[in-house]
Design goal:
Elements lengths: L6 E7 L7 H14 L4 E7 L11 H4 L3 E2 L5 E2 L2 H8 L9 E3 H14 L9 H19 L4 E6 L9 H14 L4 E8 L2 E2 L4 E2 L2 H13 L5 E6 L5 H11 L6 E5 L8 H7 L2 H8 L10 H11 L3 E9 L9 H13 L2 E9 H8 L12 E4 L8 H14 L3 E4 L1 H13 L7 E2 L9 E5 L1 H4 L9 E9 L4 H6 L3 E8 L1 E3 L4 H6 L3 E6 L4 E6 L6 E4 L14 H13 L6
Parallel strand pairs: 1-6, 1-7, 2-5, 2-6, 7-10, 10-11, 12-13, 12-14, 14-15, 15-23, 16-17
Antiparallel strand pairs: 3-4, 8-9, 17-20, 18-19, 18-21, 21-22, 22-23
Helix pairs in contact: 1-3, 1-9, 4-5, 5-6, 12-19, 13-14, 14-15
The protein binds glutamine (GLN).
């Protein structure tokens, strides 16, 4: 059987959430690839939802979409951006999925009269999913990140499965990393190890002995601290690693972890040589990131602006595009409802000094008119405009109303009775009565029109891009829009769906029904983001030398 060599690295979290488990896992993946190994990652989320597709971005941050159309946790975005792993729905597992599978099996009678229990049936299903990814892909390393914090009721079956895997495969093929927090009490200026001790104690009660403690801290731990943590937590002193707060950029984290010996200690655990590391493409990206030659100011107009993670992939892709242009990125986050409230239709002040406007995806009515106003402002003033998914739909509404003379142009998502439904449901979507997993999801082919800006930017006649939406451009309006100067420049050939629109007379006005942000990487910036930033830099040329 192939895959016999795969080694498993489990990453659990202690003390509290938001310590950077996803990014540190992705960083370790990058470092191991730099040592020449084949790596992938799985995220296991203990919540009961089947996937985060039905959760509000305020609850969960962005929903990341894989090539095969799974709606997943945003940590998968970090894995794909940091490593060469190609992820699919198998790389994102939730308690909901595990129970769903086991219960379906039970209803079919597959358990042959036995009582179905957490151990072994639920834990077996967790293990099966982990082994499937590892063995089918013939990996050197599989990194498995367990969502949540040790001590959560929901995570117990996952931790039990990890314990069993270590029993089955021995520590020679299994490594347990525990990411924990060493807080500093500000007044006393003292770093405290007690929360970590408690967290490790809880892990040990379940039967998991951590091999490495990755300690999130605001400064490098002293030898004295490390030896204290080692003693109380039953870990060798060498394996207590400082994961120091990084102020500048997440892209520095792999360097910090490498400098503190993370990859070396991981290889040592598995009896592997600490081979020389080569992350040259990352180095080149990082060098440009830290040596910008000019500044570019992009406004992102959305309704989940207050939450950092709601448009995570958009912000990352903008950064990749900026670095590719040697520009420092300044993002101005504008709540589309503020445009409606504050300016009453005159968004000039809000966009002063802005070089480009991006309108990302979203759902529901709230803030729509503000987005339409922002797009109108960009269109009328020659400001580069990049609309994504809902952004495209708002651009079509704006153009319909203000250029094509369709006064009441709207999407049937916002106004079911509109006389000008320029955005509407495809027939097959009309009969859907469930919410989860029923959108147009994942990668579809898009053919670019000859002579279009988008075809020039991609440097290719077509592309596969990822989707997550229900509504589409209504085909019967295509001719009217094209006559008035907005062309459908990208088409999904199978059922003639409009994938992209652009205004050739505008300096840069491109919208996509798909989400290009999911495929941008620091080492391979997406062409649309790169060219959007190029156009924005050109417009704001006054700030560049
Ligand atoms: N709400 C829109 C639709 O479902 C856009 C979705 C999105 O922006 N992801 O079509």
């Amino acid at each position: 059987m192939t895959g016999k060599k795969t080694r498993f690295i489990f990453v659990t979290g202690g003390v509290c959430s938001s310590l950077g488990k996803g990014i540190s896992t992705a960083s370790l993946g990058l470092l191991l690839e730099g040592h020449g190994y084949r790596v992938s990652a799985v995220k296991m989320d203990p919540y009961i939802n089947i996937d985060p597709g039905t959760m509000s971005p305020f609850q969960h941050g962005e929903v990341y979409v894989t090539e095969d159309g799974a709606e997943t946790d945003l940590d998968l975005g970090y894995y794909e951006r940091f490593t060469g792993a190609r992820l699919s729905r198998r790389n994102s597992v939730s308690t909901g999925q595990i129970y769903f599978t086991v219960i379906e099996r039970e209803r079919r009678g597959d358990y042959l009269g036995r009582t179905v229990q957490v151990i072994p049936h639920i834990t077996d299903e967790i293990k099966r999913r982990i082994y499937d990814v590892a063995f089918e892909e013939d990996l050197d390393f599989l990194l498995i990140e367990i969502g949540g914090t040790v001590g959560d009721i929901e995570s117990i079956p996952f931790l039990e499965a990890i314990r069993q895997i270590r029993q089955e495969l021995t520590p020679r093929r299994v490594l347990n990393v525990h990411l924990t927090l060493i807080p500093t009490i500000t007044v006393a200026g003292e770093a405290k190890t007690k929360p970590t001790q408690h967290s490790v104690k809880m892990l040990m009660e379940i039967g998991i002995i951590p091999d490495i403690l990755l300690c999130r801290t605001n400064r490098v731990l002293t030898d004295e601290m490390r030896s204290k943590i080692a003693l109380f937590c039953n870990v060798s002193e060498r394996n207590v690693i400082s994961a120091v707060d990084i102020k500048s950029s997440i892209y520095e984290i792999p360097y910090m972890l490498h400098a503190n010996g993370y990859d070396e200690i991981v290889l040592e655990h598995f009896g592997l040589e600490n081979s020389p590391i080569d992350i040259g493409a990352w180095d080149r990206f990082y060098h440009s990131l830290t040596n910008p030659r000019c500044t570019v100011r992009i406004a992102v107009v959305g309704k989940y602006i207050s939450l950092q993670d709601a448009y995570r992939s958009i912000y990352e892709a903008l950064l990749h595009g900026a670095v590719a242009n040697e520009a420092e990125l300044e993002i101005t986050r504008i709540d589309s409802e503020d445009i409606e409230k504050a300016c009453g239709g005159a968004p000039e002040q809000l966009f002063e000094g802005i070089d480009g406007i991006l309108v990302p995806g979203g759902f529901g009515n709230r803030g729509i008119e503000g987005k339409v106003m922002a797009i109108g402002h960009a269109r009328a003033n020659g400001i580069p405009l990049f609309g994504i998914c809902l952004g495209l739909q708002c651009a079509v509404i704006e153009y319909g109303r203000n250029v094509c003379g369709l006064e009441k142009a709207n999407s049937t998502e916002f106004d079911q009775g509109t006389p000008n439904p320029v955005i509407s449901l495809q027939e097959e979507q009309e009969i859907i009565d469930k919410m989860g997993g029923t959108m147009r999801l994942g990668a579809y082919l898009c053919d670019f029109r000859e002579g279009s800006a988008i075809r020039r930017i991609y440097g290719a006649p077509s592309a596969m891009e990822r989707h997550r939406h229900r509504f589409e451009f209504t085909l019967k309006y295509r001719e009217l829009f094209e006559k008035n100067g907005m062309i459908a420049s990208g088409i999904h050939p199978k059922n003639n769906l409009v994938e992209t629109v652009e205004i050739p007379a505008h300096p840069w006005f491109i919208c996509t029904q798909y989400h290009p942000e999911f495929k941008s990487k620091p080492t391979a910036p997406h062409p649309l983001f790169r060219d959007f930033i190029r156009a924005a830099v050109e417009r704001g040329g006054r700030r560049c030398q």
